[in-house]
Structures
1.
Amino acid sequence: MRRIVVAITGASGSVYGIRALELLATVVDVETHLIMSGPAKTTLEIETDKSVADVEALADHVHGSRDIAASISSGSFRTAGMLVAPCSIKSLSAIANSMSSDLISRTADVTLKERRPLVLMVRETPFHLGHLRLMQRVVETGAVIFPPVPAFYNRPATLDEMVTHSVGRALEHLAIDIGGLDRWHGG
């Protein structure tokens, strides 16, 4: 069983974390561990028709964002990696600076120190130099910055298709192939 940690922060785009959980639920050998920050719960209610309980029900295990003693906060708890979707600049900053101030940043730090894949779907625009420096720092420590930039070569007809494609591609960096993604085959 591959354990994947999914963290949802307060940045706009909670649908990315939700879709990740939905897609991961279709992969038989994956066990999901969810962390939602307090601001994520607020954003979720503003942006979607889902409740916090609805999203938590999509995960195999749910961890409180302040529970720094949770299993996933330790390197001895083996995971196949972590996806932060969406990743706020606040969370990016905590991760880039090894702050470990909550369970999201602590688990991300553990993921990096154990050399496991960490994928950050950074959700902000435009970026200023401080944001870019944080991204550079976190990439230098081993993370992947994967902003949810839609692909258009697959001619998406709906927002749902765009979200699914972005999340599916991000999950590939965690060695998860959800299948069914349109691929570029050349012109």
2.
Amino acid sequence: MADNLQKNNSKKVIVVYVHGKGGNASEAEHYKQFFKEDVYGFDYKSENPWEAKTEFMDKFKEFSDKYNRITLIANSIGAYFSMNSGIDKFIHKAYFISPIVNLERLILNMIEWAGTTEQELEKKKIIPVDFGDDLSWDYLQYVRNHNICWTVPTDILYGSADNLQSLDTIKEFCLKASATLTVMDGSEHWFHTKEQMEFLDEWLKKAIFNEANS
């Protein structure tokens, strides 16, 4: 009886992959080679942080009911959605790839790239742009009114040629969150070339090894 009880209470672990904009849950397949545990690709439907807050919280609460330990791998805006959702209480360890850590700053940059102003955005509420999602006044206000507080031990991979978040922005976040940072010289926001993926794989293997031996 005691042996059966111990077996039933054995620790269960899951690795959850959260994709970025334009990505999909099937990308999780790449990460299965690095973990003995189950790797799950989260096929979320939310397109903004207020929708994601509910969807992510519900999903990770479901994971927490089934698993004793959750590891998070999140890419780009997927990292922001994760942090904004308040799921850090469920996460044991996180690995972020090109994370959006300051969405307000990115939106302000996009306003500048579009050749417009905050005042104009407030007046029009929505301004279409030809380089991404439409600019939204409500979106900017939400981001400003919901500061991120991330308390999970986190390793970050960042490309020095990332045009969405500056190195200073990433370093500022790492300082606040006590996250470790690895920079690939010359890499863009999207890690996808053979060289970039090899660098990513080596970074992740090293980070996992360090976590296991800490």
3.
Amino acid sequence: MAKTSNHDHDHICLLCGRTSKEAPKGITAGSLYLCEDCLVRGCNILGYEVMSEEEAMSLRAEKSQFLGAGDFNLDPPAELKKFMDEYVVGQDRVKKILSVAIYNHYKRLRYLDKHKSEKSSSKLELEKSNVLLIGPTGSGKTLLARTIAKKLNVPFAIADATTLTEAGYVGDDVENILLRLIQAADYDLAKAQIGIIFIDEIDKIAKRSENVSITRDVSGEGVQQALLKILEGTVANVPPKGGRKHPMEEYIKLDTTNILFICSGAFVGLDQIIQRRIGQRVLGFGKKQDFLSSPDANSSNSAILDLAEPEDLLKFGLIPEFIGRLPVIGSLRPLSKQDLIHILTEPKNSIVRQYQELFKMDDAKLVIQDEALEEIAAIAEKKGTGARGLKAIFERIMLDYMYDLPNMSGKTFTLTKEMVLDKQEPDYEKK
């Protein structure tokens, strides 16, 4: 940790070259040394005023409080959903849930900022509501969170819950999640404290079994326990360089009270837990029919996740305290073949538009037939990777054509169904 002191050993200033005997006052960080004169001169050049240690501590404490509530864009839920519609196909119900939750969260921050001068006993305490998204892989969970953060103009960080372990074990501490948000805010703590953190694969930290085990579940229940405080709101000690905490390291103090956490996971098997809870419904005179055995079973499989209750998540392996800190739950349905076709063409940054722009850069033109789009969507649907697999499929199909693209100036390339199936050679036409 850097400190100001007189030195028992000679150190050479990084800037002026004087030794610590010639300029006894300065700061050290290991073997590095910067004398007081160079430190003051550098601060003046950068426009900073030199302050005492007491003043610096006071400023740091002030910055750790909630500041800058007016620095984000806040539109009504309908406008937020409309913006998400431009980038994300389908999932209308989840868009509404997310729009309302985020609008209420940042409206709450405006309220707190407006009444921050009032005594805590005289103002109403509004608690934040973190969000849990449930849905299959490639259904748009990450894209929804990233899009809404872009609209609000707030720092946004993504973390993977599978890398987290309890403190003292191999893996990442939960505080490393906060470091990613601080980095996304360019180390501006005021901005970071009103940001959004998206934690993916949250279902992977569920307890492995309801049975008592002699081995410690360091990446399951232990991580849930560690996440409780930062989800609810606390002043966390974040290591500035990531990794494990070191007792001699100076931490960054970050208040998580006003950070919105969006957790997501596939929760494979949760639908079966819900089905067992619902049981069988009675049709007619005592006749019973299973909830998912109806002709529209496929639609029921996705709709049943809308019926998820805290007790279902508890049986899945989440602890009650963790579930309580994620009160807003939204479920995403699997993407159909038609949805995948829309994803290829409709969003502002769709894959087809991206490739057409790449061709345009080389003075060429790309035309994709509808049958080719249908075949690409069918391949992605068969693989079961959702929208995430479309890019990989497109890259494979277009590899050879992109290789020849610099020599296609002034030509038009048409992608057909047969080319997608590798049954036809490419055909280039002049404009």
4.
Amino acid sequence: MAQYITKITILGSGPAGYTAAIYAARAGLNPYLVSGFEVGGQLTMTTNVENFPGFPLAVSGTELTDKMRQQAVNMGVNIINDKINGVDLTCRPFLLSSENGNCFKTDCLIIATGASAKWLDYDAHKKYIGKGLSTCATCDGFFYKNKTVAVVGGGNAAAEEALYLTNFASKVFLIHRRDALRAEKILQERLFKNPKIEICWNNVVSEILGDQEVKGVKLKNVVTDEKKTIVLDGIFLAIGYKPNSEIFKKYIDLDEDGYIITKPNSCQTNVEGVFAAGDVKNKYFQQAVIAAGTGAVAAMEAQKYLSSL
């Protein structure tokens, strides 16, 4: 148990958090970064990152965040492997408490806690987690060699998961509730060309079937109401994210989906001295490069705020 008194504390270890920390360190603010227990955030679940500038060849999400972490360390960022579970933003300095019993008093706070994968029906399906139900193809795809799996979703994440799973599975169903994908065109082209992938348009999962392990899914066509059953060995969810903002809702303005609201063209929240960056505030464009950009903006705005005190 320790007490840390800082000018600036950054919560989160994804692209937004690391970038904010690097900029804050370059500004001489001696930042502390509390990593959370999912070090690297959602990016570590991405197999190949092809669209982050500076990497002409695809790089894994884990490798990319590891490089960001090392850069932050080289800049002198103090990284604490802990998770904040309580905040008081009414006092000055702000007061943060952690799961490991640590206490942080900070003049300025950057929230870069990201977002977590959504589940179809957590209570109904939690018995299958790790037994055929997953949100991470990178983590679990290897276990489905020559088996049949399904991916639920229609965005970039779902397309990437489906394509990755073809490296192992003999058949991959992509289940999407609409008649068109939201994924980037280049990913769609790869999906349509891959003989292992079959897309179930206008379908939703009405039930996951199995006993101790996933054995299949029941689908319902949202247009025709037709129902069908697909025999499966595994199902991967890629249906969006929930922002990790719950502990801030007493103090910070959130939208109806829990994303942190910031001032126009800014990372400043409704609480002076508290900034938000990355996927916890970015509802529509959840990309590593955008998260990193907002991390830089948050740090520069934080520097100006601290200079004004």
